[in-house]
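Meet today's protein:

…
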Amino acid sequence: MSGLQTEFPFTLPKGFVDDNGTLHRTGVMRLACARDEIEPLRDGRVKENDAYATVIVLSRVVTELGTVQRVTTKTIESLFVSDFGYLQDLYRIINFQDPSILDALEPGTPFPTASVEVG
């Protein structure tokens, strides 16, 4: 019997470099629930800057990133822009599109434009 896939492994294009200089490229993102999108709206950082909601949401749904003990907003803030964009696209695909497209892609390669459009 096949169940709903709720966790998706990923490989960042560049990778997160931690305070010790260690590069982390692989991780896992889980499907978001309503709370993941609602809770950030109560955060003062989001009230000052709407775009910060994305940082908070990603810090909640990225459950693993290399050997990083806990993915936090500071972790997400420290990502290279290309990796941040990659995670935003992955979030859109697994939550709003057909995640089976991931099976055909090489790890860490950009997503086809049509697969990340919402609407």
User: Anything to note?
Assistant: The helical segments are 34-38, 44-48, 52-61, 73-77, 81-96, 113-116. The beta strands are 7-17, 23-30, 62-65.
